[in-house]
Amino acid sequence: MTPLVLLPGMMCDARLYQPQIAALSGSRPLLTFPLSTQDSVLAMAADVLTNAPPVFALAGLSMGGIVAMEVVRQAPNRVERLALLDTNPLAEKPEVKDRRGPQMEAVRKGKLRQVMRDEMKPNYLADGPNQGAILDLCMAMAEDLGSDVFLRQSRALMDRPDQSETLKAYAGSSLVLCGREDGLCPVERHQLMHDLLPNSRFEVIEQAGHLPTLEQPNDTTAALIRWLEAT
Question: What share of the chain is helix, strand, coil (3-state, %, to 5)?
Fold first, then answer.
């Protein structure tokens, strides 16, 4: 059974995939990498490749998806299949890059919790009874990772490459998935990735925003299982 590598988003760890790990752990080997020790997407991807099995299925959400695309760029033959969740294949826009400087300065001054609270705007998540608990979990993951990780990951995202050509060239079985109400990485961005990938399935999770793995875990897990079992 092909191992599955899960790459979490910015300031997240394996808890981002808790429901999927619980559902899939009995059926295949699972690995997660926190993407916390490097300050460039290229180095993060190289680190994943150093520690991953020789051949694996790869899924990444948000920043994890950005790193997953770089993993495919560096070693496409090692990635049997690819799942990109609530992510972005394009280089960072100048206006977004400009916002990172003040965020990073605030975090250097000990204001990680404040920055995370301001950035984890509830409109990144769909309205629902679990919204508060998910935001609390996001805060816990961020505080456990700490300010240095925030700064490294911010630098990595600022300087990330455009991966459009990477997606065009990748022939493996692919899943492009997003929450219908994702305000950070909208549905149209995922349609672009689906159009670029030669062999992809496109799934939109209803009543979910940027974190469908936690907002609608059953629907997201079912989509991942369909992708993993596709021939």
Answer: 55, 15, 30
